[in-house]
Amino acid sequence: VYFPAYLLVILFSPYLTLTLYQNFSVGELARYVIVGMMLVTLANVLNLNLEAQRKMKHLSILENGHLFLRSGLSIFALLLGLGLKGVVIGYFLAELIVFIASLTVYAYWSTKNTLIPKLSEIIKNMRQVKYTYHIRFSFSIFLDSNLGNFLGNLPALILSLLVSPAVLGFYRLATSYMSL
Predict the structure, then answer these.
(1) How far, in whole angstroms, is CA 107 from its chain's centroid?
(2) Is 22 left (phi over 0), alpha (psi -120 to 50) or beta?
(3) What's the pLDDT tens digit per position in 17-76?
(4) CB distance 43 to 96 below 8 Å
(5) What sign results for the dihedral spanned by CA atoms 171, 73, 107, 128?
(6) Does the global pTM surpass 0.70?
(7) Residue 74 to residue 68: CA distance in whole angstroms
(8) Which residues contact 23 (CB under 8 A, 6 or more apart)?
(9) What H or E segment, with its residue span, contains residue 1?
(10) In degrees to the nearest 10, what's the CA dihedral of 147, 153, 157, 158?
(11) Do the beta carbons of residue 88 and residue 33 sit within 8 Å?
(12) d(CA 145, CA 135)
């Protein structure tokens, strides 16, 4: 369910931000974030396999390394003075590095452990999957989680249409402070 939604967001995000904020470039940057989210799917599969095998040391290295890379590269790009574009590119590079690392580790462990299917087997057997069953099952979960996120951010979205970015920043800071 997520991949078709991601593809729609990739296609329409520049036009949506052009309509809402009169800024096409924010939507262009959102495309990098969405592609990064798609790349990290393999890391999530690897995380589930590591949990099932009770390899907590490897799992913590992967998850903490992912968080460190994501934050570190974005902060580094920001300190270089690249602004929002640099932060997004840092995020995307971190997701790409984690994808490559996850692909390498998954391919290595799938040859060592018979319980983990090889990537070639997964791709070969994708035609046998009943997509309509999985889409019906996961659509309500997808809708619930994304609708919850949307409703949580709705006040800031409406406020961004009515006030200056400085006031919106103050609002976001105040709500973050209140949630502590």
Answers:
(1) 22
(2) left
(3) 778 777 777 778 888 888 888 888 778 877 877 787 787 888 888 888 888 888 888 888
(4) no
(5) positive
(6) no
(7) 10
(8) 17
(9) none
(10) 90
(11) yes
(12) 15
